[in-house]
Amino acid sequence: MTENLPPMAPLLEAASLMNMARSTAYRLAREGKLPFPVKRVGGRYYVPRAQMLQSLELTSGAVDAE
């Protein structure tokens, strides 16, 4: 079902999957310390969904089950 999702995910979605506070996610994104690339677009942070899921070792089935 992840094929129906946009290719980029908001940073807060990644933070939620990592059980990480919003402020920590933004700090790590600014410092370039997240395990996947982060793109800033118009003041918002986005991550490539496929790379995020791969680096967190999540399968599409695990995400769909939530």
TrEMBL record:
Residue ranges constituting the Helix-turn-helix domain according to the UniProt record: 13-56
Top-level taxon of the source organism: Bacteria
Protein name as catalogued: Helix-turn-helix domain protein
GO MF term list: DNA binding
Originating organism: Corynebacterium gerontici
